[in-house]
Every structure is written in C-alpha cells, then in structure tokens.
Amino acid sequence: MVDGTALSQYTGARRRLVETLHDGGVGDLNVLRAFDQTPRHLFVPTGMRHRAYEDSALPIGNGQTISQPSTHARYLELLHLTGSERVLEVGTGSGYQTVLLSHLSSQVFSIERMGGLLARARDAIRESGARNVSLLTGDGTLGWREYSPFDAILVTAGAPSEPPPLVEQLAQGGRMLIPIGDREEQRLTLVTRHGETLDRRDMGPARFVPLVGMHGWPS
Ligand code: SAM
Known about the structure:
Layout (H helix, E strand, L loop, with lengths): L3 H4 L3 H13 L5 H8 L21 E4 L2 E3 L2 H11 L6 E5 L5 H9 L2 E6 L2 H14 L4 E5 L12 E6 L8 H5 L1 E12 L4 E9 L2 E10 L13
Parallel strand pairs: 3-4, 3-6, 4-5, 6-7
Antiparallel strand pairs: 1-2, 7-8, 8-9
Helix pairs in contact: 2-3, 3-5
Bound molecules: S-adenosylmethionine.
C-alpha cells in the first residue's frame, strides 16, 4: 500500500531514476517497480529534495548516508526476493531501502543503532505508506531473535566478520548479503544456508560505513 500523495510528487524525476537504473543493467522488473513506488524524496533532508532522484549517495545526518540507488538495486537483485519472505535489515539509515524491501517481501524487520536516525526513518516510512515494516533501535549484530528465522538478511554497514547471531538466525535456504573487510573497504559476501552448510560467494568490492556493535567494530 503506497501513499498516493507522496507518489504524486517528483513523478518525472522518479521515472528518470528508474530509466537510469534500467539503462545501467538492472533487469529485474519487480526491483524497478519497487523504485517506481518508493518516494525517495521523503528519505533525504528537506534541503536536498531536489537531488533525491539522482543516482548518488547523500548525507542524512549523524555522519551517515543514504546509499546510491544503483547500489540498492544491485543488492535487491542479488537477494532474489519473491514477495513471500521475512527479511531482516541491519542498518535502517534513512529507511529508504527498508521501503524498497517492503515492496519485494512480506515482512521487513529493520534495526538501527542511532535512535535519532530511526525516529526520522520511522516518520518517512509511515508517510511512504509501507505497513509491513517493524523497526527497532539497537545493535543489529545481535539480530532480532524473536522474529527469526529470516529468509533474507541485508547488512548495510561494513563488518569485520560474519556476526554469529545473524548466521544462526538465517532460515534454511536463506541468503545473507554482508560487506566484510576493514573499516574503509569490504568485499560484498553472499552467504547461503544449505542445512548446516554455509555457502559463501564473493560478489565484489563494497565501501560502507562501519558496522558498530558487539559482533562488529568498537564504536
Ligand atoms: N540503506 C540505508 C539507506 O538507504 O538510507 C543506509 C544505511 S547506512 C550506509 C548504514 C547504517 O548502519 C547507518 O545508519 C548506521 O548507523 C547503521 N549501523 C551501523 N552499525 C549498526 C549496528 N550494529 N546495528 C544497527 N545499525 C547499525
């Protein structure tokens, strides 16, 4: 369910962003539709709304950024969501990707360690019309055991290694995308659970802010 008022603004700019993503190689129509249905201007500071539909990362306060749309698109394609999944997102940030995920799955659980960011994200998510989203302020490296197991886990900050609680909370056949490396540069890693076996695939370079927490970096 998408709020029509927010979507009636910046329609042309949003359509051009979808075309840019398509021209850049994003072929999954469900992913492109999610971008078309998500009002990104709600998730950037008011003074930056005129730049909301550029394919670029933008500052959102508290030293954090809303990631580049083409980065979101690539990650969403890699997760191969079919609409029935229970998804855990670690690092809500602006809440934009949370809403993209909400269009592609049945339920999204998202954790952000910074209470101020989460408060703003909560308002924007509500205004966007997304209703299948649950939010928590806290350390996402611990996961959200109460609602586990998750069919997909998306970590949007760079980790030194796989947080064991997240691996434990991955469902059979579940996929986790997580950037792993040092504080500046990581390798995007796709972890898939097959029974007790974990399959790990390197999906290329990534640059994210540090994942700070008990199973991440010290603050
Ligand atoms: N995808 C987000 C968006 O669209 O706006 C951007 C996420 S930003 C690159 C990474 C976020 O992870 C930051 O907001 C940061 O505060 C958060 N973060 C870092 N460590 C965390 C942790 N242990 N638990 C939850 N959130 C964390």
